[in-house]
Amino acid sequence: MKIDPSKPADLSAQIAAAIRDAIIGGDLIVDERLPSEAELADHFNVSRPTVREALKRLAAQSLIRTQRGASGGAFVNRLSFEDAYAQQITTSTLLLSMNAVSFDTACEARFALERACAPLSAQRRSADHLATMRAEIHRQQQPGLTDEAFCASDVAVHRALVDGAGNPVLSYQLAGAVEAMQPLMNMITFSARSREEIVAMHTELADAIEAGDGPTADAVLLRLEDYTRTLARDVMAARAARASS
Amino acid sequence: MKIDPSKPADLSAQIAAAIRDAIIGGDLIVDERLPSEAELADHFNVSRPTVREALKRLAAQSLIRTQRGASGGAFVNRLSFEDAYAQQITTSTLLLSMNAVSFDTACEARFALERACAPLSAQRRSADHLATMRAEIHRQQQPGLTDEAFCASDVAVHRALVDGAGNPVLSYQLAGAVEAMQPLMNMITFSARSREEIVAMHTELADAIEAGDGPTADAVLLRLEDYTRTLARDVMAARAARASS
DNA sequence: AGACTTTTAAATGTCAGACAAATAAAATCT
DNA sequence: AGATTTTATTTGTCTGACATTTAAAAGTCT
User: Fold this and answer.
1) Residues whose CB falls within 7 A of nucleic chain C?
2) Does this complex have an ipTM over 0.90?
3) How do the pLDDT tens digits run along chain A, 245 residues long?
4) Is CB count within 10 Å lower at the N or C end of chain B?
5) Are A35 and A95 in a shared domain?
6) Which residues share a beta bridge with A33?
7) How close, in Å, is residue A244 to chain B by CA atoms?
8) Are B54 and B36 within one domain?
9) DSSP single-letter state for residue B128
10) Is residue A34 included in any domain, yes or no?
């Protein structure tokens, strides 16, 4: 583990970077125990609070976990897909909300990625994935459903589609794109009419997936993308017009 | 901002979560200044070091930045695409290295996502993106090129392809998938023969992109995927055979 | 001897108070 | 008025201490 140049004033960041590099570089193996805070403080010639700040940075990225007690300490964490999903969703949500990424751009990205999954999902989806899609589509036809519940169900359908591809890396990549858009989606699927259209396309999608027909699934997604983007444009335009009145 | 239940013992994590929720929920706007550490400590009824650990957690995720001095403090950070890329790459690298994700799975995901970009890139790429691809392909034909340099150039070609789609969300999503695989790719493109094949396909790809021909670009990527995965399988098999001897 | 209980030690979690360094605003001087 | 100095605020860091948790060691009883 390297030592820090004494010049700049952000020791905890430097220490965090040193340990992070050691983990990524393979010098520290999964479940390996790091030296105690006191030992690290001694090693880097800093105080324990400074070491602790560095460790908290790493903990925030799920790179380490800590355990109290006699044989406790900081351990290199095996980054689970769940942790990765959560980080991905947080990051994506912030990117969309803070960087003036238009709904249109986000939507294009989302459907592009989903269409990449469609042929794989058509080929490999389990009965379980298909059943989930069917169940969610059925729920979407309930009259009393709130907008939030409808959108959550919408996400669940697409999630099942992606998971059906059986590639956890793809599922991870898409988690952010799909989930981060949900708040935006909530604003545009308000009318009974649009729900009807969406349910119809979901049904077609499920049929294609059931039949193992990738190209048709792709075509449905393309139409769904087009419909969603047009709907969003109209909603935004209407909102803008109302705002200026 | 909510208060923490006094029960569990991880105050800094709770405080970090409270502030994070405030940022994601829009209660704290970009560039808004948070209360000083002393004020936060008073607010949450904890000590300053505890507050600092919470702030370092947020800083590790690029959610805040801090500034020393009279009118300094912690400010809500506008998450830049660059920061998001970096996090994405770190997370993806760890996922691949620690979760026994096979090269094959990662490769499938990568090409699926790239193929999603291909039609968009064929339609919208700038002259700059195309020039970058051509230049990198030219470099790949230099005889003295190291394996690392060849692979870096390979990544640059695919990067230019993805960026050519003009969708920053897609670029962000793909950054992890492509860059995280580079170390693995280094191991399989060692022979002159494979370089030759790859350069040929890169050239076809650039031609298709230049002609605005999405379907052909897609077909080339499909062949490149197949070639890469086959090559990787052979290399792995050879390595396994050598190891058992 | 073997199983259960108690003690102990090591580690993280938290706190308090202090000083250093940076920085912008206020006060002062030319 | 403009330039310079002072001052106040805030983060960065250190020292030292105590609380809490937890596993292992020591001790005790059957």
Assistant:
1) A 9, 34, 36-38, 48-49, 52, 55, 66-70, 72-74; B 9-12, 45-50, 53, 67-72
2) no
3) 665 555 567 899 999 999 999 998 889 999 999 999 999 999 999 999 999 999 999 999 999 999 998 888 999 999 988 888 888 888 888 888 887 788 889 899 999 999 999 999 999 999 999 999 999 999 999 988 888 898 889 999 999 999 999 999 898 888 877 788 877 777 776 676 788 999 999 999 999 999 999 999 999 999 999 999 998 888 888 888 887 77
4) C
5) no
6) A75
7) 24
8) yes
9) H
10) yes
